[in-house]
TrEMBL record:
Ion transport listed as a keyword: no
Subcellular location: Membrane
Primary site of residence: membrane
UniProt entry keywords in alphabetical sequence: Membrane, Receptor, Signal, Transmembrane, Transmembrane helix
Signal peptide (residue range): 1-24
Protein name per its UniProtKB record: Putative speract receptor
Length: 503
């Protein structure tokens, strides 16, 4: 019965936005337009802290809220202890677990609004309807893990911004790489995880606009981490390789590291790695870590020798590595704080690898404080989402990672992406970067080491079906015809001469 009620609740919320906009005003919380007379500013923090169904298939990526949420507390504490930020005001937050469910996002945004929050940090995973509600109520909302492309439409989502780079921002680097090497024919292989589906959708939409032809696109279900396929019967990628390799040379792969290894094993089984004619561009938009240069990517320990071999046929796109020398202190402090109220997470002594979304979360709160500081100085109210966003859009800021980032006029954050590959002694290093004009350039003294000594071609010289090298038979036909005509004439003449001699 509970499942039947969710769509009804969703329909009710959507109708309240589009059909009855006055309802939001007439039923607003008891707070006044500028309710911060006591100096308290309240934020609603929306995060997927656990799955609705604990037995449902998920990956660690779906539950990173448990790991990163300490960055929320750390940012709030940093702001409250900085006399130059929001002087005379005190920030606090209310925590709502969205459980990766859109209906729970709706409930969270609505309940926090009723409690009278001045703005929202989040939601993550799914954010479109939450952003639409914030627009309807003119409250600021800054997300830290949202990749939905729709929300950059400021006619419908005017009070929304995000510190996580969008799929469209990130794939501009993919397009620049493909165009640089004249790889204008590709095949996309992607997991069906939410983020990978979003990136694939944008790739299919945008690649043809830049004259890159998508030969075909294939998806696969997430593969368990411990799966180590050893033959054609257990490798889920074998059928993908068999159905695509005759019409492609360049693969765009979106998946986890262990899934990439399974894909490369299938390619090896089919003989695609023998001559260096095939290449995989792996799109893994997580932040590269320096230790990976020597130790390899996570999960390479499953088959380290194979992983090194497969790396020679792969270029990786990662978010550029962190340059803040104090970043480890930030992640350590965030990990410590998430174990306290209101989160009370216990890691059982595990040494955690804090994902980059912790930085995006911290940046979101700090960016909000900077914009709000200007808004209040201008005499506007904290609950005026339009005013807050006007002071946030088209703004450059320094991320906790140490990298410079920019929020554009649509509220989208810039992406900082680099290309990594094998360079000398089988080390994984950054070998290329992208410029603001969306061009790719290899770094000085970091030329790419191609397996065959030269870059692979996106299309074979003679084409996939030998269509560019078909012999022109017309001259041959003409030559053979002339030859036989001459031969017949000679034979006829010879017979005539013989007959005359006999006479």
């Amino acid at each position: 019965m509970g499942r039947i009620q969710f769509p009804v609740f969703t329909l009710f919320i959507v109708m309240s936005i589009f059909a009855m906009p006055s309802w939001c005003v007439n039923n607003a919380p008891a707070k006044t337009a500028c309710p911060n007379e006591d100096g308290t500013i309240e934020l609603g923090y929306l995060v997927a802290f656990e799955n609705k169904d604990e037995s449902a298939d998920s990956t660690a990526y779906d539950l990173i809220g448990r790991v990163i949420s300490g960055a929320m507390t750390l940012a709030i504490d940093t702001i409250n202890n900085d006399s130059s930020l929001l002087p005379g005001y005190h920030l606090m937050f209310h925590f709502w677990n969205t459980r990766s469910e859109e209906d729970d996002v709706l409930r969270g945004v609505t309940n926090l609004w009723k409690e009278g929050v001045d703005g929202f940090i989040g939601p993550d995973v799914t954010c479109t309807i939450g952003a639409r509600l914030a627009h309807a109520w003119n409250l600021p909302m800054i997300a830290y893990r949202c990749y939905d492309p729709e929300v950059n439409n400021k006619d419908l989502y005017s009070t929304f911004a995000r510190t996580s780079p969008t799929a469209r921002k990130s794939i501009r680097s993919v397009i620049a790489l493909l165009k640089n090497f004249n790889w204008l024919h590709v095949t996309i292989v992607s997991s069906n995880r939410n983020y990978h589906r979003t990136v694939t959708k944008v790739l299919i939409e945008d690649l043809p606009k830049d004259k890159v032809e998508v030969q075909t696109s294939r998806t696969f279900k997430p593969v368990p981490i411990l799966l180590q396929p050893e033959d054609n019967d257990t490798n889920p990628f074998q059928s993908i390789i068999e159905s695509t390799y005759k019409k492609t040379r360049i693969y765009l792969f979106l998946g986890e590291e262990w899934e990439w290894m399974g894909f490369m094993q299938a390619a090896e089984t089919e003989g695609l790695l023998d001559k260096g004619e095939y290449l995989v561009v792996a799109l893994n938009f997580v932040t590269f870590k320096d230790k990976w240069a020597k130790d390899g990517l996570p999960w390479f320990y499953l088959a380290p020798d194979k992983a090194k071999s497969y790396m020679r046929h792969t270029l990786w796109l990662f978010n550029t590595e962190v340059i803040n020398p104090n970043y480890d202190e930030f992640t350590d402090k965030a990990t410590e704080l998430v174990q306290n109220q209101p989160f009370n997470v216990s890691f059982g002594g595990l040494d955690l690898d804090v994902p980059i979304e912790a930085a995006f979360l911290y940046d979101a709160v700090m960016l909000y404080a900077l914009a709000l500081n200007t808004t209040l100085s201008d005499g506007e109210c904290a609950r005026n989402g339009t005013a807050v966003m006007n002071n946030m859009f088209n703004r450059t800021y320094e991320s906790i990672t140490g990298l410079q980032r920019h929020i554009d006029i649509n509220g989208d954050s810039s992406a900082s992406v680099s290309v990594y590959g094998i360079f000398q002694e089988n080390l994984l290093e950054r070998i290329g970067t992208f410029h603001d004009d969306e061009t790719f350039e290899t770094l000085p003294s970091k030329d790419i080491t191609w397996f065959s000594g030269r870059k692979p071609l996106a299309v074979p010289v003679c084409g996939f079906d030998n269509e560019f090298c078909q012999r022109n038979w017309i001259p041959i036909y003409i030559g053979l015809t002339v030859f036989f005509l001459v031969l017949i004439a000679v034979l006829c003449l010879s017979l005539t001469i013989l007959q005359e001699l006999e006479i």
